[in-house]
Amino acid sequence: METLTTRGIQISVEVFYDAANSNPDKNKFFFTYRVTIENKSQDTVQLLDRHWYIADSALLGFVKEVEGPGVIGKQPTLEPGEFHQYESWSPLKSELGKMHGYYTMQRTTDGTKFKVRIPEFKLVASYVLN
């Protein structure tokens, strides 16, 4: 698990290789990741947007950017001490890749927006490590 805290917002990410939906013979590799966003600050915050950078070793240095509102259709508001957890997935054309990014958050008391870094995490097919 990778964890990083920015301005009191802790982001933790766990990654799982999805062998059942992957097809290495056709260069299709699927990875599921679980993100936990925990508000360890003293402020109530809302997640507004996400911005991901996805690197796939098959694409020789090309980094795909994905951005949009919320996470899986939600823009959760977190009181101090609360957390939001969700799962998503990423397809790659190789068994090796990595992701990182940031969330744009907003303090509800004064509308201040700030970026919360998502730690870099590796996407590695489990059989590569054995």
Stated plainly, the CATH topology is called: Immunoglobulin-like
- Determine the mean pLDDT: 94
CATH class: Mainly Beta
Which structural class should the secondary elements be placed in? mainly beta
User: What is the overall silhouette?
Assistant: elongated
Q: Which regions are unreliable across 5 or more consecutive residues at pLDDT < 50?
A: none
| CA distance, first residue to last residue | 19 Å
| Count of runs of 4 or more consecutive helical residues | 0
How many strands appear in the DSSP assignment? 9
Content of β-strand: over 45%
Counting structural domains, the number is 1
H-E string = EEEEEEEEE
CATH H level: which superfamily?
ApaG domain
Properties at a glance:
mainly beta, 9 strands, 0% helix, single chain, 4-stranded antiparallel sheet, 130 residues, Immunoglobulin-like, 5-stranded antiparallel sheet
Question: What can you tell me about this protein's structure?
Answer:
The mean pLDDT is 94. Helix content is 0%, strand content 62%. The protein has one domain (2-122): Immunoglobulin-like, CATH 2.60.40. The strands form two sheets. Strands 4, 5, 6, 8 and 9 form a five-stranded antiparallel sheet that branches. It is mainly beta.
Structure, briefly:
The protein is an all-beta fold and 130 residues long.
